[in-house]
């Protein structure tokens, strides 16, 4: 029962924070939706597929058989640890960005965040996404989910590269110096 709640609660809470935070920003005339830094269809499909991967994992936790093989208990434990860790990174990253958070590249000026978790990783939220994708694959051992997760990770890496170009253009030397100090992911 605790496993089911943990698997289900984290993505639901994150989506509530994501969209609830977006509504709060909107009231302050800040648009959470930035410009897609890559092809819009590819960008949006990868974002929605993350939610689909999370939903698949939730369904599996509720006993819906999506695996082609029995997932060993130790592997499920590793998957749950990655799942929780990934969502913790997503929450810390989201709150750490505050009003500078955007889904895509900002359309208006924002602040460069280089403190907190951003002193360790330039992209802690993407690390969190990658961790939840890996957790979902390990939790389900579903080869189709593996293919989807690889696609999402590849697209998100392209998004990161495009966002870095944007940040370099906006923040110049400050961002370049930050990149020298802090790794892209870990």
What does this structure look like?
This protein has 186 residues and is mostly helical. The chain has one domain: Four Helix Bundle (Hemerythrin (Met), subunit A), CATH 1.20.120.1630. The chain has helices at 2-27, 40-61, 73-97, 124-140, 143-181. Helix 1 runs parallel beside helix 3 (73-97) and helix 2 crosses helix 4 (124-140). The longest helix is centred in the C-terminal third of the chain and has 39 residues, at 143-181. It is globular, with a radius of gyration of 17 Å. The protein starts with a helix and ends in a 5-residue tail after the last helix. 27% of the residues are buried.
List the helices and strands and how they pair.
Blueprint: H1 2-27, H2 40-61, H3 73-97, H4 124-140, H5 143-181
């Amino acid at each position: 029962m605790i496993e089911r709640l943990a698997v289900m609660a984290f993505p639901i809470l994150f989506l509530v924070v994501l969209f609830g935070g977006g509504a709060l920003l909107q009231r302050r005339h800040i648009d959470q939706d930035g410009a897609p830094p890559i092809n819009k269809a590819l960008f949006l499909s990868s974002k929605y597929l993350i939610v689909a991967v999370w939903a698949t994992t939730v369904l599996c936790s509720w006993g819906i058989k999506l695996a082609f093989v029995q997932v060993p208990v130790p592997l499920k434990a590793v998957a749950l640890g990655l799942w929780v860790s990934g969502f913790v990174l997503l929450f810390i990253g989201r709150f750490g960005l505050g009003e500078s958070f955007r889904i895509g590249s900002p359309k208006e000026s924002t602040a460069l965040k280089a403190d907190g978790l951003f002193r360790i990783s330039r992209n802690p939220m993407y690390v969190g996404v990658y961790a939840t994708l890996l957790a979902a694959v390990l939790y389900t051992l579903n080869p189709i989910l593996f293919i989807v997760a690889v696609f999402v990770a590849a697209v998100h890496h392209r998004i990161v590269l495009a966002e870095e170009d944007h940040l370099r253009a906006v923040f110049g030397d400050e961002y370049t110096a930050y990149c020298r100090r802090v790794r892209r992911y870990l």
